[in-house]
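ugh finaly. both done.
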Amino acid sequence: MAEPVVSPDHATLDLERFLPYRLSVLSNRVSMAISSEYHRRFGLAITEWRVMAVLGRYPGLSAREVTERTAMDKVAVSRAVARLLERELLRRETHGDDRRRSVLTLTEAGHSVYDEVAPMVLACERQLLSPLDDDERVLLGRLIDKLSAEGMEEMLRHI
């Protein structure tokens, strides 16, 4: 591995200790490891599975609401939704009397894929967390919740 170059004339950002970078790298590695199996078996991209996972838990959301829940780019969500609709894993319907609002739900075929992938990703999560004891898992969950809520609000106030 290459040694980092430090220049006295420029600001230094130690990426290996910079939390957003570390979280991003960890997230990417975990997502790639988990996605390899559902991509191989079902031809799903990470964005497609994330859309399906959210709709499996919260059926009847609009694409905008899926975007908000996943924190993914709206173009990525739109493309994933289009592919899932084309494959008939999702269904889009207008919402009641509001003809301007459409909602998304998994089809029977979508539920079938979801029912196979969900236990598989949960097993991957168990494997990822296996080095931690029960107290550490609880603490990790609490810390992530705290950073997600308070940390993001505080960060946004200072940008």
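ok and the 2nd:
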Amino acid sequence: MESVTEIIVKEDHIDPIGHVNNIKFVSFLEDARGDWYRKAGISYEEMQKKKIGTVILKLDIMFLKEARLGDSLKIITRPKKLGTKSFVFEQKIFNQLEEPITEVTVTSVMFDTILRRSITVVDEIVRKFSNID
């Protein structure tokens, strides 16, 4: 399952250099993963009710091109690899010209928020990883 999230770059996304600050990209990527979870049937709100969540184990970002005020960004989030307690997303950000802005690999771990430990990946997520190569 692939998710597409669109963001328009606003003034509060811009740093003193005049482009999107790297920490804002991390926030954009988090929002896009939230969109993927919602579409998978397990939103952040639903996870909170179940006392579970995800934590980032590894975040690998390659910044390819800057994004500037007014740019229209498209974030594509797709499953890459499924483990027992962890899973990997591939995320790519493109601008309005379809130029690649970033290439990202995110490894997440399923987490029990009460016991504070990793748990088996929930079925809602597992089902959406079932068709990956």
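summary for the 2nd one i guess: The chain has three helices and six strands.
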